[in-house]
């Protein structure tokens, strides 16, 4: 395992452990974060830990054409149950993602340091938020890194049933219309699999980067 220094560089992702851990240390300055995502690497750690950098193999991805929309979700979309916006409340979205309780998770990996780093990326035009509203109330959202041809999803939250799924479907359709080839979902979850995501070898994912 590599210990990062002040130099903005990463070892080859082939050096990652079987669990996907590539390196520890370094910082979350924008230049390092962008290099990480462009190299198939992302940070994931808990409060009080050093920054841990990951590049798992296999990689969970969603090709826009493979998006699965259930009959019930199609009905919600037709009824325009929620309103979706982009980049209107990034700070609120990432804060909600950090605070929302998740089954089997005692604390959040979105530390204050992470929040500040991704807010800075957003202000520089590299991080995108999706907001889901019912009337004037924020009820769901997603944020991630937009590399143009690839969107790297980071986290989502929902205060109402299906709100984040509603926003995710809108996001995938929006990305497809704008030429996005792939949504990086990082690691497997049943929720993402139900939407059409699946695992591919890391080398396949890197070929799209």
From TrEMBL:
Lineage: superkingdom: Bacteria
Keyword flag Acyltransferase: yes
SUPFAM superfamilies given in the database record: Acyl-CoA N-acyltransferases (Nat)
Entry-linked InterPro entries: Acyl_CoA_acyltransferase (IPR016181), Leu/Phe-tRNA_Trfase (IPR004616), Leu/Phe-tRNA_Trfase_C (IPR042203), Leu/Phe-tRNA_Trfase_N (IPR042221)
NCBIfam families: aat (TIGR00667)
Known role: Functions in the N-end rule pathway of protein degradation where it conjugates Leu, Phe and, less efficiently, Met from aminoacyl-tRNAs to the N-termini of proteins containing an N-terminal arginine or lysine.
Cytoplasm is among the record's keywords: yes
Catalytic class of the enzyme: transferase
Keywords: Acyltransferase, Cytoplasm, Transferase
EC identifiers of the protein: 2.3.2.6
GO biological process, one term: protein catabolic process
Name under which the protein is recorded: Leucyl/phenylalanyl-tRNA--protein transferase
Signal sequence extent: none
Any matching Pfam family: Leu_Phe_trans
A GO term from the CC aspect: cytoplasm
Compartments it resides in: Cytoplasm
Subcellular location, principal: cytoplasm
Catalysed reaction, written as an equation: L-phenylalanyl-tRNA(Phe) + an N-terminal L-alpha-aminoacyl-[protein] = an N-terminal L-phenylalanyl-L-alpha-aminoacyl-[protein] + tRNA(Phe); N-terminal L-arginyl-[protein] + L-leucyl-tRNA(Leu) = N-terminal L-leucyl-L-arginyl-[protein] + tRNA(Leu) + H(+); N-terminal L-lysyl-[protein] + L-leucyl-tRNA(Leu) = N-terminal L-leucyl-L-lysyl-[protein] + tRNA(Leu) + H(+)
The organism of origin for this protein: Kordia algicida OT-1
Single GO MF annotation: leucyl-tRNA--protein transferase activity
């Amino acid at each position: 395992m590599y210990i990062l220094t002040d130099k903005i560089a990463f070892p080859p992702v082939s050096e990652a452990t079987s669990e996907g851990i590539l390196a520890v240390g370094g910082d979350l300055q924008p230049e390092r974060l962008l290099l990480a995502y462009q190299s198939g690497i992302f940070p994931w750690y808990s409060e009080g830990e050093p920054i841990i950098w990951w590049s798992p193999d296999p990689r969970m991805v969603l090709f826009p054409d493979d998006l699965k929309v259930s009959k019930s979700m199609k009905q919600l979309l037709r009824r325009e149950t929620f309103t979706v916006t982009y980049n209107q409340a990034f700070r609120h979205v990432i804060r909600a993602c950090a605070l929302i309780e998740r089954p089997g998770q005692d604390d959040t990996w979105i530390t204050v340091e992470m929040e500040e780093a991704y807010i800075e990326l957003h202000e520089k035009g590299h991080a995108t938020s999706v907001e889901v509203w019912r009337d004037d109330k924020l009820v769901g959202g997603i944020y991630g890194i937009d590399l143009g041809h690839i969107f790297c999803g980071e986290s989502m939250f929902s205060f109402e049933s299906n709100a984040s799924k509603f926003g995710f479907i809108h996001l995938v359709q929006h990305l497809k219309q704008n030429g996005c080839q792939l949504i990086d979902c990082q690691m497997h979850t049943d929720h993402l699999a139900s939407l059409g995501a699946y695992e591919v070898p890391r080398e396949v994912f890197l070929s799209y980067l």
